[in-house]
Amino acid sequence: MLNVEIITVHTTQNINIEYEIGGLGERILAKLIDYAIFIPFLFVGVFLAGALSGWAIGVYYILLAIVFTFYDLLCEVFFNGQSLGKKVMKIRVISLEGARPKFSQYLLRWLFRMVDFGITSGVGALITAIMTEKCQRIGDVVAGTAMIKTTPRTQINNLIFSNIEDTYQPMFMQAGQLGDKDIGLIHEVIENYLKTGSNVVVFRMAERIKELLSIAPPPQMNSLVFLQTIVKDYSHIAARAEPL
After folding, report:
1. Which of 92, 105, 213, 242: disulfide with 174, CB 3.0–4.6 Å?
2. What confidence tier does 161 reach under pLDDT thresholds 50, 70, 90?
3. With b meaning 16 or more CB within 10 Å and e meaning fewer, what string describes 105-138?
């Protein structure tokens, strides 16, 4: 089995969630998608050249160059570490500490684009990404950031109010003490396990829930089944509590 590199994110709920590192292929495709966004605007400038003065066309291309230059920085700052290309490829920038990067970190990795893709013509970024364990380019190493794979969460309404038999009897009534965000995190852990096969995060989440709710499940119940049961119990309890 391949050794998948992960980053552990410590949430405000004091629960660790592991994310798989974004691969070199996803990063290259994301970059190509971002570049492709600007191609139509180049063609627009060509078509406008015959209708507008040279001064106006010059201003158009200067503005386009400014947007292109600051595109990555602005997208990552305002869209939680994602450009359009990164969003399509389901990757985003994250601090190695597990939190959302600070503006200074975004700025550093953007400034070092000159080294990664300018001075070294992309060779520096490629070599560094291959050599580092977390597939970091030079800007990531300096800024203390990395790229992780993300999986969109299932809509909380679909998760909570799933179809459950009226005769269903919850095994753990303590599940009602949890909130929507807690169940969302549990579901994310389950989805992450199904995607990566990492059972460590499932075990950690299960142990944390047992501690929080003072639950002692049957000995034969493994961590994954326990978390799935908690979600189902919460769904039943929350649905019963909804006003008619």
Report:
1. 213
2. very low
3. bbebbbebbebbbeeeeeebbbebbeebebbbbb
pLDDT digits (tens, 9 = 90+) for 93-150: 988 876 678 999 999 999 999 999 889 888 998 899 888 888 899 999 999 999 988 7
Distance between CA atoms of 231 and 159, rounded to whole angstroms? 8
Around Cβ 53, how many Cβ atoms within 10 Å? Answer: 9
Residue 131 CB partners (closer than 8 Å, separation 6+): none
Q: Kindly report the three-state secondary structure assignment for every residue of the chain.
A: CCCCCEEEEECCCCCEEEEEECCHHHHHHHHHHHHHHHHHHHHHHHHHCCCCCHHHHHHHHHHHHHHHHHHHHHHHHHCCCCCHHHHHCCEEEEECCCCCCCHHHHHHHHHCHHHHHHHCCCHHHHHHHHHCCCCCCHHHHHHCEEEEECCCCCCHHHHHCCCCCCCCCCCCHHHHHCCHHHHHHHHHHHHHHHHHCCCHHHHHHHHHHHHHHCCCCCCCCCHHHHHHHHHHHHHHHHHHHCCC
Torsion of CA 131, 132, 134, 137, to 10 degrees: -90
User: Could you give phi then psi for residue 117, rounded to 5 degrees?
Assistant: -115, -10
- In this predicted structure, the answer to whether residue 90 has a pLDDT above a threshold of 70 is yes
| pTM of this prediction exceeds 0.85 | no
